[in-house]
Design goal:
Number of strands: 8
Largest sheet: 6 strands, mixed
CATH topology: Glutaredoxin
CATH architecture: 3-Layer(aba) Sandwich
Distance between the termini: 49 Å
CATH superfamily: Glutaredoxin
Shape: globular
Length: about 170
């Protein structure tokens, strides 16, 4: 292996370690709302308003992300796979881009073959704050069928970690 390849491998390993160390989860009761505001709406990439209330009674995974976010690009394929695995059981996954325009979101969804709704969070500061968003992405909110927040994960999570949290939503 050449010195250049070793350096690239070490840099990649360091980046993954940095990502892993930034992950944190927050249980309800840390000062952010415990109940999702089901009256909140976000436009989809075609401009239609989507109400969170349309998914009431179902477990939800709400992923806040951005097209420029490297960890988001790593996490999206995991969410696509989990959506395919659990949608028949009623799981709803929603992707909400925090600051991208619909055209960029549509291109991202096409690139990653996203099968769940992709929504526009740009200029929806109150609605994003109500989900507990305060700046970093990705952030994933796991919501029980009764609309209560089970947990939030800030940073990239492993598929196994997300799957454990999803399964807990069905209990």
């Amino acid at each position: 292996m050449t010195a250049g390849r070793i350096g690239m491998a070490l840099a990649a390993a360091g980046a993954l370690l940095a990502i892993a160390l930034t992950v944190r989860w927050t249980p309800p009761g840390d000062g952010v709302p415990e109940q999702v505001d089901l009256e909140a709406t976000f436009p989809d990439v075609d401009g239609r308003e989507v109400r969170l209330a349309d998914f009431a009674g179902k477990p939800m995974v709400i992923n806040l992300w951005a097209t420029w976010c490297g960890p988001c690009r790593l996490e999206t394929p995991q969410l696509v796979d989990l959506h395919a695995k659990y949608r028949e059981r009623g799981l709803v996954i929603l992707g909400i881009s925090i600051d991208d325009r619909p055209e960029a979101i549509r291109a991202f969804a096409d690139e990653f073959k996203v099968t769940y709704p992709m929504l526009v969070g740009r200029d929806r500061h109150e609605e994003l704050a109500a989900l507990g968003y305060s700046g970093p992405v990705p952030m994933t909110v796991f919501v029980r069928p009764d609309g209560t927040i089970a947990t939030r994960v800030v940073g990239i999570a492993t598929t196994a970690s997300m799957e454990r949290r999803i399964l807990a939503l069905f209990e």
